[in-house]
Design brief:
Elements (H helix, E strand, L loop, with lengths): L9 H4 L5 H18 L3 H9 L8 H14 L3 H14 L4 H13 L3 H14 L4 H13 L3 H14 L4 H4 L12 H13 L4
Helix pairs in contact: 2-3, 2-4, 3-4, 4-5, 4-6, 5-6, 6-7, 7-8, 8-9, 9-11
Amino acid sequence: MVANLDRLVWSAVLPMVSKAQLDHARRLQAASGYLDLEMPDHALRALAGIAHPETTPFEFHLLRGMALRCAGRFAEALVALTHAREERPDDLDVLMGMAWCFKRTEQLPRAITTMEEAYRAHPKVPVVLYNIACYYSLAGDKVQALSWLGRALRMNADLRKLIDDESDFDSLRQDPDFQYITKLELLTDRPE
């Protein structure tokens, strides 16, 4: 017998998986793919067909929260992301998604607090520090914004490419300290 090694025969690989379990997994995968394509309504429809979301609560609520966020339904996204956070309190995607939604629902202090929690759980992820800088800038706290931004740029100089298009820094653009930090970081950036 010759086996087709390019294509798995799922009935042979997963003999104990029920049709309902396979459908559940396919719907989660479809929702994830739709989100990659920025098609949140399709993702939500795929998730709506899941009969028992409690089987994979983290994945279900994370994908639902991200789809709602992508659709601009930030308050609803916060509910779903809060459920995901109950399953995995330190998950970076959950924390960043929640902070994004808090910002857009006029809850900037909660966005900052959530990103600081993300930093405590993920201190070596430069985008976390960058986002904290953005939120402090929006809050009008120049000292904190510049401190976090400087640290983020030292961790990853490529984040500098985002600054020109980042409207969160608009209030600081003409500030000499902001200009100094962004230029200083540029001058001290050395290829390894």
